[in-house]
Specification:
The protein is mostly helical. The protein is 68% helix and 11% strand. It folds into two domains: 3-205, Alpha-lytic protease prodomain-like, CATH 1.20.1510.10; 212-288, Alpha-Beta Plaits (2-Layer Sandwich). It is elongated. The protein starts with a helix and ends in a 5-residue tail after the last strand.
């Protein structure tokens, strides 16, 4: 299965899961007198729209290259990630504002059954995070990584809600706002996670060199390749789920241009076949002269 197919299938999983959970949270929060659960529902509702955006971004970013976009459309993916982060920040602000309003307003204690619902939600969302995160690592998708963190932040807000409701129910009258304080804490956690998602996507847009492990692997394969004497510069840029490599290698200065070209062509094919995610390799040939000769 291609990276595109894996990513699309994973996003559909997120959309369906978030839709079902948002419905459960809204109903349980409303009838169970829990604003922390309603805050959780707000985030899950935002997650539905952000997952739809991720899906659209992945489909567009994997369109083939054309005359106007010779490197393809991969830069769309981190742009979509920025929009997803915007949804997270908006949800955090709404949750924070409503939490402060509820802290200042007397209200009833949450119902006991809200804890059972929250326990099931925490289990599901953490499992969803692990599943989507594993797929984001496999495909190298930054927007899928953002989608995974939506699940993790959802699990964290649910844990906060669980603690707040537990405190309110155990301590009784006078501690009704523990539920709302938990929601306020959850808003802070969401904002922090937003930064963790935003920073790598920004580096991707700016072609920041953050692929040391990949570069090391490229150089190791190149040095073991017949005809390559040494490697020099190696730059990697990421577009969507694909990598584009600029590599400088040294070959024997005495061989012909034709032979050098053939070595570069064969090395390019080997790198693409052995390293998942590399879309293209531009190889620059340098003459190698043994200083001991």
């Amino acid at each position: 299965m291609s990276n595109k197919s894996i990513a699309i299938k994973t996003v559909y999983f997120s959309i369906i899961g978030n839709t079902l959970l948002a419905t459960v949270k809204w109903l349980t929060g409303y009838f169970g007198n829990s604003y922390a659960l309603i805050a959780d529902a707000i985030e899950s509702t935002a997650d539905i729209f952000s997952s739809v955006l991720v899906l659209a971004g992945i489909k567009f970013s994997t369109k083939p290259a054309d005359k106007k976009h010779p490197y393809g459309h991969g830069k769309v993916e981190p742009l979509v990630t920025f929009i997803v982060v915007g949804f997270l920040i908006t949800a955090a602000i709404i949750i924070g504002y409503e939490s402060i309003q509820n802290i200042q307003t007397p209200h009833e204690l949450p119902e006991y059954y809200t804890l059972i619902i929250l326990g099931a939600i925490i289990f599901w969302k953490e499992g969803s995070y692990r599943y989507v995160s594993s797929k984001s690592k496999k495909t190298g998708s930054s927007s899928l990584k953002a989608d995974a963190w939506h699940h993790r932040s959802d699990a964290i807000t649910s844990v906060a809600a669980f603690i707040g409701i537990t405190v309110a129910l155990i301590m009784g009258k006078g501690y009704e706002t523990a539920d709302d304080w938990a929601a306020l804490l959850a808003a802070g956690v969401i904002l922090f996670n937003s930064w963790l998602i935003f920073r790598p996507a920004l580096g991707e847009i700016l072609d920041e060199q953050q692929y040391g492990e990949l570069i090391s692997k490229i150089k190791t394969i190149s040095l073991d390749f017949q005809g390559i004497k040494d490697t020099e510069k190696c730059y990697v840029r990421k577009l969507g789920m694909s990598f584009y490599v600029d590599l400088h290698v040294q070959v024997d200065h005495a061989i012909s241009v034709k032979e050098s070209h053939q070595i570069a062509h064969n090395l390019k094919n080997k790198l693409i076949s052995q390293i998942n995610g590399i879309e293209d390799v531009l190889i620059h040939i340098e003459p190698y002269e043994n200083k001991n000769d």
